[in-house]
Amino acid sequence: MADDTVDSNGGPAPVGVLPIKMVIVIAVGVLLLGIGGAIAFMSLTKGGEKPESGAEAAADTKTAPKAKEDESAQKHGASPKGAPGPIFDLDPFVVNLADAADVHYLKVTVKLELDHPATAELLNQRVPQIRDAVLILLSSKESEAVRTAQGKLQLREDLLLKVNSLLPKGGVRGAYFTEFIVQ
After folding, report:
1. 25, 91, 103, 137: most buried, per Cβ within 10 A?
2. Mean pLDDT, residues 114-126 taken together
3. Helix and strand counts by DSSP (H, E) for the chain
4. Phi-psi region of 80 (alpha: psi -120 to 50; beta: other; left: phi over 0)
């Protein structure tokens, strides 16, 4: 007998056909490998450990002190640089703009994002100075300047500089306009 393969009925097995158990084992193995590969891919793309090259390792040593500062800031109640900080609400401002020919008004409501919750106490103590500085800043602008997106961004930067200059160590990280009406 040249052919020694026998199927379960005692007859010769067809040549080139795998038994059903072997097909199931191969399919399960491929499925498990696919799932494992997908999990590995997802963990790498979601900030998992990546192999570092020399340049990436050097960049990590530069950012390591910043990460330590963020961790120490969290321990002391401060918000890390990427996380939103506490918000301090200012009452709305209504001012006459500095237009020479026409009379224009600006109504704006500002919310300040703080670096640390303790900065809110400092701001509460200096509300009159802050409101005065903001009113003078707003009334020095012309309507055409504040109507543009670039003008609003410049106003935001000026506002941050003014408010931080009134605090001993700064502490205001962002300013947000929640209402902005030019009439």
Report:
1. 137
2. 91
3. 6, 4
4. beta
